[in-house]
Amino acid sequence: MNDLAAEVTAVLERSILPSVIARGAAALHVVAAEDGVVTLRADGSPGAVLPILGRIEAQIRAAVPGVTAVRLASADPAPSGAGDIAEAARAVLDAEINPAIAAHRGRVRLAGVTGGWIRVRLEGGCQGCSLAEVTLRQGIEPLLRARLPQMTGLVDVTDHEAGTEPFFSPEKR
């Protein structure tokens, strides 16, 4: 284990692991630390880590100045072939994203893939939710980009106006 990995591991154990374990992940490990980029792996439910990955990264970067980015590794890497992008996107959505947003009665479905653009539809508590755009841009899109380097972009095709039970109603903006 290099010095950067050791420093990040110490920060994880000291201040981050209790909240990660409380959310349902069994543990969080450093699997790589190179050129300031740290890759973590969550044992248990990666979906428990996804919603707080931004906070985890902020804590690690504050405690270890050499860290420039934090990524979450997939326990089961999705297929990476160009023809497999739809299948890979669906696998990431089902295995890593949907378990995280299920707590808000939400679900993300793959609506299609064209030219590297992944189209998704938000359902349940996510449809019409005032924080749907935040979920897409700060949660779903970064994870898909990390898992699917062939991805061009993410498009939300949800009819948010038709949402009947948003987790956060538009009035709560």
Helix content: 25-40%
Mean of pLDDT: 83
Strand order of the largest sheet: 1-2-3
Note the total helix count: 5
Describe this structure in words.
Helices cover 39% and strands 25% of the residues. The radius of gyration is 17 Å and the shape is globular. The strands form 2 sheets. It has a 3-stranded mixed β-sheet. The protein has 2 domains: 3-73, GMP Synthetase, Chain A, domain 3, CATH 3.30.300; 82-172, 2-Layer Sandwich (GMP Synthetase, Chain A, domain 3), CATH 3.30.300. With 173 residues, it is of the alpha/beta class. A hairpin with a 2-residue loop joins strand 4 and strand 5 (117-124). Helix 1 runs antiparallel to helix 3 and helix 4 crosses helix 5 (132-147). It has helices at 3-22, 46-49, 53-63, 85-101, 132-147, and strands at residues 25-34, 37-44, 69-73, 106-114, 117-124, 153-156. It contains 5 helices and 6 strands.
